[in-house]
Automatic annotation (TrEMBL), chain A:
The keyword Cytoplasm does not apply. Mo-molybdopterin binds at residues 27, 30-31, 85, 120, 166, 171, 182-184. GO terms for molecular function: metal ion binding; molybdopterin cofactor binding; oxidoreductase activity, acting on a sulfur group of donors, quinone or similar compound as acceptor. The chain holds residues 49 to 310 of 310 of the full protein. The keyword Metal-binding applies. Keywords: Metal-binding, Molybdenum, Oxidoreductase, Signal. Belongs to the MsrP family. Part of the MsrPQ system that repairs oxidized periplasmic proteins containing methionine sulfoxide residues (Met-O), using respiratory chain electrons. Thus protects these proteins from oxidative-stress damage caused by reactive species of oxygen and chlorine generated by the host defense mechanisms. MsrPQ is essential for the maintenance of envelope integrity under bleach stress, rescuing a wide series of structurally unrelated periplasmic proteins from methionine oxidation. It catalyses: L-methionyl-[protein] + a quinone + H2O = L-methionyl-(S)-S-oxide-[protein] + a quinol; L-methionyl-[protein] + a quinone + H2O = L-methionyl-(R)-S-oxide-[protein] + a quinol. Its EC number is 1.8.5.-. This is Protein-methionine-sulfoxide reductase catalytic subunit MsrP. Heterodimer of a catalytic subunit (MsrP) and a heme-binding subunit (MsrQ). Predicted to be exported by the Tat system. The position of the signal peptide cleavage has not been experimentally proven. The gene is msrP.
Automatic annotation (TrEMBL), chain B:
It is a multi-pass membrane protein. This is Protein-methionine-sulfoxide reductase heme-binding subunit MsrQ. It comes from the Bacteria. It comes from Thauera chlorobenzoica. It holds the Pfam family Ferric_reduct. Belongs to the MsrQ family. Keywords: Cell membrane, Electron transport, Flavoprotein, FMN, Heme, Iron, Membrane, Metal-binding, Transmembrane, Transmembrane helix, Transport. HAMAP family: MsrQ. GO terms for molecular function: electron transfer activity; FMN binding; heme binding; metal ion binding; oxidoreductase activity, acting on diphenols and related substances as donors.
């Protein structure tokens, strides 16, 4: 993969990084199969150049970007973030990217835009055709979450362009939410008025809420979320509220009952 | 029917074959080739092998009946005990490497997470079956009671499939496959039982000696 460099960010954690092999070999990218090793085996088939990202919907200047346009929007930063999967494991990943806000500001969201919908690439010729989820994969954020400085559009990790299995060529990373909120291989970003439908919420609404903030106090019906296993470690560690980003993001949810709006 | 010696060597071979999955997991753990999340691999694979051995155990009777190879029955106890051994390893791995004996968390899992409740129930129900899998217990209980007890295996297999089904997030292919196999294995038994019932009903009762001739009432 091609080299990418990013300047260090004050938002990075100093925790030890998860091994590159695990970051690029243990993935949930169901379009390429539901086994953790499937994406690394099958995602190479995906063509990531040329790539078009449409940013549309309730915006004054909706437009399409190719990858080089996207790279010009803002300087790349290295963001070392914790990633917490809803299944109870976690990693520390050195992403390369920049705030999603840089993209959204480029298209000038209208006042009526309240939410942002993300649509992932779906090509039945190379991806699962079985309706494991309602393809294409869709995710969503509230506009203020999408504009938060911790929310990034990532184009690389570990100093190189994103490997396909990690959601090349560009993906969302929202470090205080469960991993599935961070949509991979995004082809469209839509500014919308109403809360968008999201893939996992459609599949099992009682299990995966729209917000899906990391929350050790709200158990998933199948997994306690109180603790997690950091990949590479044997013993579990306690899960932190908002995945340890409470100081930066708790204000977004003031006055909300996070057990109900999970 | 193979000779007693032949059956002994078949059993010895089967014993070793059944150990292979466990040996592979143990060696993989040692060599760190179980992937990025080895604890998950160990827990999951041991559980899946427990389910496979359970289904294999349930295959013996239909296979024997369809093939006429009645000596297959002599392998059933070993398969059943392997199902129990893998289930015990699965449960122990959960207690140890997954939960590190955090009894509070384990209790909450049991009470709040249905897939864990049914898995635990399946394991607990296996205990008396494993404990009575010997000639002494059969003698002690008597054949009929022993058999009645061991019919619990049908319920256990259903619980085990549910345990897997409810664990899976979205891709139900694998649990569906096991459910289909179990449905065939149980369906065959139900079908044969029904056939047997019908056969018994259709046999005329032995003629009784009648003291008076029967007066037939003819329809007009």
């Amino acid at each position: 993969a091609s080299r990418l460099d990013g300047r260090p960010s004050p938002h990075s954690t100093t925790e030890p990084l998860t091994a590159h092999k695990a970051v690029t070999g243990y993935n949930n990218f169901y379009e390429f199969g539901t086994d953790k090793a499937d994406p690394a085996r099958h995602a190479a088939k995906m063509q990531v150049r040329p790539w078009t990202l449409r940013v549309e919907g309730l915006a004054a200047r909706p437009r399409s970007f190719d990858l080089d346009d996207v790279l010009k929007l803002a300087p790349l930063e290295e963001r070392i973030y914790r990633l917490r999967c809803v299944e109870g494991w976690s990693m520390v990943i050195p992403w390369l990217g920049f705030p999603l806000a840089a993209v959204l500001k480029e298209v000038e969201p209208l006042g009526s835009a309240k939410y942002v919908e993300f649509v992932s690439h779906y090509d039945p010729a190379i991806m699962l055709r079985r309706p494991v989820l309602d393809w294409p994969y869709r995710e969503g954020l509230r506009l203020d979450e999408a504009l938060h400085p911790l929310t990034i559009l990532a184009l690389g990790l570990y100093g190189e362009a994103l490997p396909n299995q990690n959601g090349a060529p560009l993906r969302l990373v929202v470090p205080w939410k469960y991993g599935f909120k961070s949509a991979k291989s995004i082809v469209a970003i839509r500014l919308v008025e109403h809360q968008p439908a999201t893939a996992w919420n459609l599949a099992a609404p009682q299990e995966y809420g729209f917000y899906s903030n990391v929350n050790p106090q709200v158990a998933h019906p199948r997994w306690s979320q109180a603790s997690e296993r950091r990949i590479g470690e044997l013993r579990k560690r306690p899960t932190l509220m908002f995945n340890g980003y409470a100081e930066q993001v708790a204000g977004l949810y003031r006055g909300m009952d996070l057990a109900k709006e999970f | 029917m193979p000779s007693a010696r032949r059956i002994s060597s078949i059993k010895a071979l089967l014993f070793v074959l059944c150990l292979i999955p466990a040996a592979r997991l143990a060696l993989g753990w040692q060599a760190d080739t179980l992937g990025a999340n080895p604890v998950e691999t160990l827990t999951r694979d041991s559980g899946e092998w427990a389910l496979r051995f359970l289904l294999l155990t349930l295959t013996v009777t239909p296979l024997r009946r369809l093939s006429g190879l009645h000596w297959l029955l002599r392998l059933r106890r070993m398969l059943g005990l392997y199902a129990f051994a893998y289930a015990a390893a699965h449960f122990a791995l959960y207690l140890w490497l997954d939960q590190f004996f955090d009894w509070g968390a384990i209790a909450r899992d049991l009470l709040e997470r249905p897939f864990i409740s049914v898995g635990f129930a399946a394991f607990v129900l296996l205990l008396p079956l494993a404990a009575t899998s010997n000639a002494f217990a059969i003698g002690r209980l008597g054949g009929r009671r022993w058999q009645a007890l061991h019919r619990a295996v049908y319920g256990i297999a259903i619980l085990a499939v549910m345990h897997f089904w409810w664990l899976v997030k979205a891709d139900l292919r694998e649990p569906l496959l096991y459910a289909a196999i179990l449905a065939v294995l149980l369906g065959l038994r139900a079908w044969w039982r029904e056939q047997e019932r019908r056969r018994q009903l259709s046999v005329p009762p032995p003629a009784k000696h009648l003291e008076r001739p029967l007066i037939r009432i003819m329809p007009k």
